[in-house]
Amino acid sequence: MMGRRFKEDIQTIFDSAGEKPYHIMLFDNGTYIGMMGLAQKLMKNDTSSLVLDFGHTGIKRAVIKKSGGEIAEFTAQESLPSLHMKSHFDSEDEKRREAIELHRYIVNTIVASYRAADPATLDDTILISIANYTHNGILNGERGGYAKLCAINPDYAAVLEDDLSGELHRDIKVRLVHDSTASALYFADVDRSVCITLGTGFGVGFTDIKIQ
Description:
Blueprint: H1 2-17, H2 33-42, E1 47-54, E2 58-67, E3 70-81, H3 92-116, E4 125-130, E5 134-135, E6 138-139, H4 156-168, E7 173-178, H5 179-185, E8 194-198, E9 202-206
Parallel strand pairs: 1-4, 4-7
Antiparallel strand pairs: 1-2, 2-3, 5-6, 8-9
């Protein structure tokens, strides 16, 4: 209902300005949209992958199967609370301690999620949407609860790959993507568009971003 109210108010602003309005699409059930965006654009065909969404309030988890270029199966696991989201610290030592606690929680969550599925059927690549601006697996250290992970290593995808490979005894690859960008990937076929997400915070993703 909030989205519909926003759409009405935006239309009113365009009308009062005498301008042609943008075409605004509402997505009624956006809970897993980022995970589906990742799967649709980054998963190999005819595989099953573990896909996670690390937000500031909750962690969503699912095993997704892709077949014929489309999402064939979506098996959700129970969502978990986001913990260790503190973002302001009195010292660098405190920041690093909190970062290590968060990292342990993330690794334990991913390992448990992987083992809860059938590991033998899963691809070695784990797809992760995260509430942090990322580029090639490198986190932004300035904003939000996940930013402190830079105190361990800004190249956080590489850190996860090393630790998860050791825990799961296989060569794990991690694709780490900004959460609103992940959502925008689901709408990549919509030309000249932007995706706005309303969660614990506001996010913006662009559908024409090319993630290699």
